[in-house]
Design goal:
CATH architecture of the largest domain in chain A: 3-Layer(aba) Sandwich
Structural class of chain B: alpha/beta
CATH class of the largest domain in chain A: Alpha Beta
Number of helices of chain A: 6
Strand order of the largest sheet of chain A: 11-10-9-8-12-13-16
Order of helices and strands of chain B: HEEEHEHEHHHHHH
Strand content of chain A: 25-35%
Chains: A alpha/beta, B alpha/beta, C alpha+beta
Number of strands of chain B: 5
Strand order of the largest sheet of chain B: 2-1-3-4-5
Radius of gyration of chain B: 20 Å
Largest interface: A-C, 52 and 62 residues
Number of domains of chain A: 2
Shape of chain B: globular
Number of domains of chain B: 2
Helix content of chain B: 25-40%
Number of strands of chain A: 16
Radius of gyration of chain A: 19 Å
Distance between the termini of chain A: 56 Å
CATH topology of the largest domain in chain A: Rossmann fold
Shape of chain A: globular
Oligomer: heterotrimer
Order of helices and strands of chain A: EEEEEEHEHEHEHEEEHEEEEH
Chain lengths: 273, 278, 329
């Protein structure tokens, strides 16, 4: 008779316990949490972050490897619980999951990075990586927009990038009395640049509506669909392609993405809002 | 077999519905909510009016869909449905002047096995109480039958509780009872508000009871016992008993019956100093 | 041919219960049929109200417990119990084969897979399909060729017994005193008492669906949907789940539970943005997932033709009609 038997398999739902090492306040609602350098990852990947008792959410990794930094905007139950964490608190981390930015395809190319709000988070690791091996890439444009000057994230990085071998353009939707830069949504930056589609790849991350208009601007500049790369966001409950929530058509944002070549998802209009 | 006169009656009603639908659409109505051979249907085009039917399988309470429409709408209502419509108007979910009510007196609806639905067997309002046009022969209304509630009430406390425990242990929280209920018109149900953590999607006796008992109290003075909740339940839980119990209590405490009077103010949204202390 | 006399079924069950947890169809006072391990077994039934998927993917289960203290503790809750499911229909057996694809792959789900590994299936062929059954179109029934350990066929006052796996053969050999060998004449009695009457047109469904993304057909057909979860919860191949934490003071658990793409909150992100904000979007997602997206990824339609969604929908939405009718125009 068959005895009850156990499959020797790893449990992908069990988080690894990690302690918060450092916290940096970015804005009134956004903080960056630093953890010990444990696993290598690709810029653009994400983790599932648990605050035990509140729940678990997918959060982009906002640093280049080997650093592990997670930038979180407080909007719901779990992200508010994350916002209230203190140094030394124990959280759960599963991952890294997802496919990351197509860094190999970027070598030798002109790179156009466009971020909106907290969408700059998954792009920050990519910029750090590019700047650390600058000679492997051609021109680098960084376009970033937030709602107001106080909503700009990674202010120190923006400062550094303005002095780096990159073309940085920053804008806000609404200025305050000190703001001297561009005012307008991020698409208003394009005319201020000399971006052309020749030998170029654009990488975008931000709110859905922002990405929609940025894609429009890029196509107006004659970028082809396959020259545009986007990082998508959806509700996720598992991060490993089982709970069903994050699909865009037949693709799961957690395992086939979150980074997609625009050509892959352009034909599923109902899902791109 | 239905009598010839009944068959004629049904056919006449169907023709009349189509005529009213056509004239309403020609006058600019946004939609006609009626029945087709597959259940509820929404006719927006004159060319589709022929899809409308009336027969003894038209069980659905169509008033559920009314708050979704902004413009002028025509709707087919039976007696039971008209009570829900009165409540929707009283609670400002539907404007009386934006809805043309095609009222139909009916003698009971049959299920797939050709038996009368349970709720039709004790129908107290076979004819609509509100309408712009009334089709069909007007039968005499009866007193509402509370016997199944009284029977349950007469049992000792432990037996009543174990009855509901057994019933609700079957509940799979599909929310069909809530979603089909015309007077559950909140745009966002408090049970769905994850932020408050009052209830969750997982299934356990406290979770299930929280949902059902909360809903019963929320609709206590609006439920018209149309019975759609019980019909929709895939696990055949007799939820209507719970709502009928609350209806009975509201009648005894406040002398109020939902669905009958457009002028009467519902007791749960009004206050007077001599309100009873239950 | 091996046979099992109907009068021996209860005795066989009692014997099996000594070593396994045995689940079988039971009927309650209101006529609802579900798989249970207590109560009287009912084998002359069309199909269960709730599919046996809940024996492998329970509606609610704790995935792990946690305890905060000097040392943070995490305790996974994976169940390993020897079980037998008796009386599962061919369509539901096929649904498990489909669910296997979801819960394996690059990441193995121990909760589902341990249950699958430790459960033997004794299926029963259908000889009297219901009016909403359309399994033959999805090639999942009414007879079973693979996927269970043993399959029984009703031949009147006895069942013919066919073992499909080594596990099944072993089970029959070990309980041989409940089974008998007879000659082949009994085959003649194996006649279906009714045929499948419901139809579904699956011709070129992938192309038709692709061409219909913007079709006004979806606005029309989704208007009566109530966005309850009946179709998804009663569907044997629906598997979407939610995960929540429940805790008090320093102890708590993470719970996994069924979720439904028909609920508006399913795809609503914190902050309020909802890519499937309308009924039309959600109904499209359900139909496209079942008959295109799942096929694109796993090579099968995510439907076994059991007809439960059609029978139970309170507003008579019929997925077979939608799939047959939808065109690109």
């Amino acid at each position: 008779m068959e005895m009850e038997s156990s499959l020797e398999i790893e449990n992908p739902y069990l988080p690894r316990l990690m302690k918060v090492q450092k916290i940096r306040v970015e804005t009134e609602n956004i903080k960056t949490f630093e953890f010990e350098k444990t696993f290598g990852h690709l810029p653009g990947q994400f983790v599932e972050l648990s605050v035990f008792g509140a729940g678990e959410v997918p959060i982009s990794i906002s640093s280049a490897p080997p650093n592990l930094e997670l930038t979180v905007n407080r909007v719901g139950i779990v992200t508010n619980a994350i916002y209230d964490l203190e140094v030394g608190d124990v959280v759960g981390i599963r991952g890294p999951y997802g496919n990351g930015w197509p860094t190999d395809a970027l070598r030798g190319k002109n790179i156009v990075i466009v971020g909106g709000g907290i969408g700059l988070a998954p792009l920050r690791g990519l910029v750090q990586m590019i700047l650390s091996e600058r000679k492997n890439y051609e021109k680098l444009y960084i376009l970033y927009g937030a709602r107001t000057p106080s909503d700009l994230v990674f202010k120190q990085d923006l400062e550094n990038w303005s002095k780096a071998p990159a073309n940085l353009f920053v804008t806000v939707d609404r200025a305050d009395e000190h703001w001297k830069g561009n005012v307008g949504v991020v698409t208003t930056l394009f005319p201020k640049t000399d971006i052309t589609p020749e030998n170029a790849i654009a990488l975008i991350c931000g709110p859905g509506i922002m990405m929609k208009f940025v894609v429009k601007s890029l196509k107006a500049l004659n970028f082809e669909d396959n020259q545009i790369v986007v990082s998508m966001e959806r509700v996720m409950k598992c991060g490993i392609g089982k709970c069903g929530h994050c699909n865009i058509g037949a693709k799961y944002v957690c395992i086939d993405g979150p980074v997609f070549n625009y050509k892959e998802i352009a034909n599923i209009p109902t899902e791109l809002k | 077999m239905r009598k010839m006169s009944e068959v004629h009656e049904i056919a006449k009603i169907e023709i009349a519905i189509k005529e009213h639908a056509s004239s309403l659409l020609s006058e600019g109505a946004e939609c006609i909510i009626g029945y087709d051979k597959d259940g509820p249907c929404f006719i927006e085009d004159l060319k589709e009016v022929d899809k409308l039917v009336w027969n003894n399988h038209c069980i659905h309470n169509l008033t559920k869909y009314l708050p979704d429409f902004e413009g002028k709408v025509g709707i087919v209502v039976k007696g039971c449905d008209s009570l829900s419509l009165v409540e929707l108007i009283k609670h400002n979910q539907v404007s009386r002047d934006k809805v043309f009510i095609i009222g139909i007196s009916c003698s009971g609806i049959l299920n797939e096995k050709k038996e009368k639905y349970k709720k039709c067997k004790n129908c107290s309002h076979p004819s609509p109480v509100i309408y712009d046009v009334l089709l069909g022969e007007k039968p005499v209304p009866k007193e509402e039958d509370h016997s199944d509630v009284v029977e349950l009430e007469s049992l000792p406390h432990e037996e009543r509780f174990s009855f509901w425990e057994r019933m609700f242990s079957k509940c799979i929280k599909c929310f069909a009872c809530r979603n089909i209920c015309p007077v559950c018109f909140c745009k966002e149900c408090l049970i769905d508000r994850r932020e408050s953590k009052w209830s969750s999607k997982f299934v356990s006796t406290p979770e299930i009871l929280t949902y059902h008992v909360t809903r019963a109290f929320h609709v206590a003075d609006m439920c018209t016992a149309c019975g759609e909740c019980e019909r929709a339940c895939p696990m055949k839980i007799p939820v209507l008993k719970l709502y009928k119990k609350l209806r009975k209590d509201v009648k005894e405490l406040f002398g109020y019956e939902a669905g009958l009077n457009l002028e009467e103010t519902p007791p749960l949204i009004s206050f007077s100093e001599d309100d009873p202390e239950p | 041919m091996t046979i099992l006399k109907k009068q021996n079924v209860s005795k066989l069950l009692d014997e099996l219960r000594r070593e396994y947890k045995v689940f079988y169809p039971t009927r309650d006072e209101e006529g609802v049929i579900s798989f249970s391990n207590v109560g009287d077994v009912v084998l002359d039934y069309s199909n269960s109200t709730v599919p046996p998927k809940d024996l492998f993917l329970p509606q609610t289960e704790t995935t792990f417990e946690f305890e905060k203290g000097a040392e943070f503790k995490l305790r996974p809750k994976v169940h390993i119990v020897k079980r037998i499911v008796l009386g599962i229909r061919p369509c539901d057996v096929h649904s498990l084969i489909l669910l296997d694809k979801v819960f394996s792959g690059d990441f193995l789900d121990p909760y589902y897979l341990q249950r699958r590994k430790n459960t033997s299936l004794i299926a029963i062929n259908c000889t009297e399909p219901e009016k909403n059954c359309f399994c033959s179109f999805l090639e999942t029934g009414p007879s079973l060729k693979e996927g269970a350990d043993i399959v029984l066929t009703d031949l009147g006052d006895l069942y013919s017994v066919e073992t499909l796996t080594e596990k099944g053969k072993e089970l029959v050999d070990n309980k041989s005193r409940f089974f008998e060998e007879v000659s082949l004449e009994q085959e003649i009695a194996r006649k279906r008492k009714a045929e499948i009457t419901k139809t579904i047109d699956l011709k070129e469904i992938a192309e038709r669906l692709e061409k219909s993304f913007e079709s006004p057909y979806w606005d029309k057909v989704s208007k009566k949907c109530l966005n309850c979860a009946i179709c998804t919860y009663l569907c044997p191949t629906c598997y979407c789940f939610d995960a929540v934490d429940e805790s008090l003071d320093f102890k708590g658990q993470r719970i996994r539970c069924w979720d439904s793409c028909m609920f508006p909150s399913y795809s609503r992100m914190a902050g309020g943005i909802n890519p499937r904000a309308t009924k039309k979007d959600r109904l499209m997602q359900r139909v496209y997932h079942k008959f295109k997206y799942f096929d694109d990824r796993y090579g099968n339609f995510a439907c076994v033709g059991c007809g439960r969604c059609v029978a139970a929908c309170p507003v008579n939405l019929d997925i077979t009609k939608i799939v047959s009718e939808v065109r690109g125009d």
